[in-house]
Amino acid sequence: MKKQVHSIEVRNAALARLTERGVTVEDIAEIVYLMQSPYHPDLTMEPCIESVKAVLEKREMQHAILVGVELDILAEKGLLSEPLQSIIASDEGLFGCDETLALGSVFGYGSIAVTTFGHLDKHKVGVIKRLDTKSAEGRVHTFLDDLVASVAANASSRMAHRMRDEQEAAAAREEALAQQNAELKLEAKGEEGNEQAG
Q1: 164 pLDDT tier (thresholds 50, 70, 90)
Q2: Which pLDDT tens digit goes with each residue over 24-69?
Q3: % residues pLDDT > 70 (the chain)
Q4: pTM for the full model?
Q5: How many Å apart are CA 176 and CA 172, to the nearest integer?
Q6: Rounded distance between C-alpha atoms, residue 150 and residue 117, angstroms
Q7: How far apart are CA 198 and CA 194, in angstroms?
Q8: Do residues 113 and 154 make contact, with C-beta atoms less than 8 angstroms apart?
């Protein structure tokens, strides 16, 4: 019987890979903050960090990180066969498998995640820019920069939807309270009218 890998082992391995490659949850949360703060002026880093952590709990995201980072590491060590070795090591412009892997992890978070991923892939915000910049020390981040964009896009979309839900819930509470106050005023007016009649 094949060994089933426990989800905690997968999660820990994916998080360890990010750390080993110099990417922190806070690095990704900073991108989320940049994406969402124009729409939510009171936004702090705390919900951004929480949203990134929630995205990193998704098994599909963990699998994508493990596959992508493994290919980056193999390319760094020169262990891939040609021409794949040269394509990944040089982050060949027409090689789209890195974006395809990352984009596959974005679809579950809706159109906001997809468009945010496109923006981040084009503009290389925050830690993505550092990962995308060719390094003199021979590091390869062909897949990782796109995977980080995917996590940030997902976390940003998740936050946008949650904040909208919170705004609507707050508005509904205010409306219910206003309705309740109006009913109390009517009741009080009715009682006052009864007293005057009596």
Answers
A1: confident
A2: 999 999 999 999 999 999 999 999 999 999 999 999 999 999 999 9
A3: 94
A4: 0.86
A5: 6
A6: 6
A7: 6
A8: yes
- Nearest-angstrom CA–CA distance, 12 and 3: 17
Query: Three-class SS of residue 125?
Result: coil
Q: Say how far apart CA 188 and CA 186 lie, in whole Å.
A: 5
Please name the residues in contact with 1: beta carbons below 8 A apart, sequence gap of 6 or more.
none
Place of tokens 């995640």: 113
Q: Are 21 and 144 in contact (CB under 8 A)?
A: yes
Under 8 Å between Cβ of 132 and 67: no
> 130: alpha, beta or left, given left = phi > 0 and alpha = psi -120 to 50?
alpha
Task: Record the tokens describing residue 120, joined without a space.
Answer: 């981040």
Task: Outline where DSSP puts E strands in the chain.
Answer: none
Question: What six digits make up the tokens of 36?
Answer: 């969402």
Q: Tokens 């880093």 identify what position? A: 45
Whose CA is closest to 24, among 132, 126, 135, 160?
126
Torsion of CA 30, 31, 35, 41, to 10 degrees: 10
Please write the tens of the pLDDT for every residue from 112-138.
999 999 999 999 999 999 998 866 578
Assign 44 to helix, strand or coil: coil
Question: Higher-confidence residue: 168 or 85?
Answer: 85
Cis peptide before 41 (omega within 30 of 0): no
